[in-house]
Write a structure and sequence with these properties.
This protein is α+β, with helices and mostly antiparallel strands. It starts with a strand and ends with a helix. The longest helix is centred in the middle third of the chain and has 20 residues. Strands 7-6-1-3-2-8 form a six-stranded mixed β-sheet, covered by helices on one side. The protein folds into two domains: 164 residues, Peptide methionine sulphoxide reductase MsrA (Peptide Methionine Sulfoxide Reductase, Chain A); 82 residues, Glutaredoxin (3-Layer(aba) Sandwich), CATH 3.40.30.
Length: 271
C-alpha cells in the first residue's frame, strides 16, 4: 500500500535527495507546508521567514514522501528523519535561519502520529545523553501541501557542482551515537574528505572523479564530521563533501562542496 508523510528538516533540497535513495520510497516531492496563507511561493517563504505578525503563519520547506509500507515502515522513515538533521534548532538548520527552515513532521494517519511521538521521546533521551537540548520539532496532521516550483524539484541533480547540507547531530537510534571510531591525525600533511553519514551525490562524484584515481604523496582519506574531534578544524562542517588540507592535525585550508580534478590539484599544489 502506498502511503504519504511529510518531513521538514531544513532546506528541502538535501532532504528530498536523502529520501529518494531509501528503499521502498516511490516518490519524493519538495513543497511548502504548515502555513496559513494561500498559494505560497518560495519568495513568500523568504519574505515571511522572520515576520512577527501573529496573523501570519509561515510555511516551512517540506518533502512529501510516498512509500510502499510493505517495503519500508513509517517507523524507519521517521527515525531517518530524526537522524538526518538537528531537531533541537528552533526555526533554523545551521546557517539557514527562518521559520521556513523549521523542523516538522506532518502525519497522514494516527499510526504515524503515534510513532512520531514515541520516537521523539526515545530520541530526546539519546540527545540528552550526548549534550543536546530539547527537541522543537512541530508534529501535526497534514492539512495542505503545495508543490514547490519546478526548479526546486531534484535540485541537487540539476546542480552537480554543489554540496549536500549536513546538519545531523550524529546521534543514532541503534547505538546512541555514531558507531564509527574517531580517527587520529597522521602527522605531517594529509587530506581529509568530509563525507555524509548517509547518501550524498557530490561525495560520490568526488570519489569517482578524484579520489579513485588519486596516487599523490600526501595521504587522502574519507571521514565523517563526527570522527574528527581529535583535529583542530576551523571550518564549520555543514556541507559535504568538505575537503580539508591538514598539517600536523590542524586545518590549513579547506574547500566546501564538489571539486573537479583540476580544482583539486591546483589546491594541492598550494598546500
Amino acid at each position: 500500500m502506498i502511503v504519504e508523510i511529510v518531513f521538514a528538516a531544513g532546506c528541502f533540497w538535501g532532504v528530498e535527495k536523502y529520501f529518494e535513495h531509501v528503499d521502498g520510497v516511490v516518490d519524493v516531492k519538495s513543497g511548502y507546508v504548515g502555513g496559513n496563507y494561500p498559494n505560497p511561493t518560495y519568495e513568500d517563504l523568504l519574505k515571511y521567514r522572520k515576520t512577527k505578525d501573529g496573523k501570519i503563519i509561515n510555511y516551512t520547506e517540506g518533502v512529501k514522501v510516498k512509500f510502499d509500507n510493505s517495503k519500508v515502515s513509517a517507523e524507519e522513515l521517521i527515525k531517518d528523519f530524526w537522524e538526518l538533521h538537528d531537531p533541537t534548532q528552533l526555526n533554523r538548520q545551521g546557517n539557514d535561519v527562518g521559520t521556513n527552515y523549521r523542523s516538522a513532521i506532518y502525519y497522514t494517519n494516527e499510526n504515524q502520529h503515534k510513532i512520531a511521538l514515541q520516537t521523539e521521546e526515545e530520541y530526546q533521551k539519546l540527545l540528552n545523553k550526548n549534550g543536546y537540548g530539547k527537541i522543537v520539532t512541530e508534529i501535526k496532521p497534514l492539512e495542505k501541501f503545495y508543490d514547490a516550483e519546478d526548479y526546486h524539484q531534484d535540485y541537487l541533480k540539476k546542480h552537480p557542482f554543489g554540496y549536500c547540507p549536513n546538519h545531523s547531530t550524529g546521534v543514532k537510534f541503534d547505538s546512541g551515537y555514531v558507531s564509527k571510531d574517531m580517527i587520529a591525525p597522521l602527522g605531517g600533511k594529509e587530506i581529509i574528505v568530509v563525507v555524509a553519514e548517509g547518501y550524498c551525490p557530490y561525495c560520490e562524484k568526488f570519489k569517482a572523479d578524484v579520489s579513485s584515481s588519486y596516487h599523490g604523496s600526501v595521504p587522502l582519506r574519507d571521514a565523517t564530521r563526527s570522527q574528527l574531534s581529535k583535529f583542530n578544524i576551523k571550518t564549520d562542517l555543514f556541507a559535504t563533501p568538505t575537503i580539508l588540507f591538514i598539517q600536523d592535525g590542524k586545518e590549513v585550508a579547506s574547500h566546501q562542496g564538489y571539486m573537479d580534478k583540476e580544482q583539486f590539484y591546483k589546491a594541492l599544489g598550494r598546500f
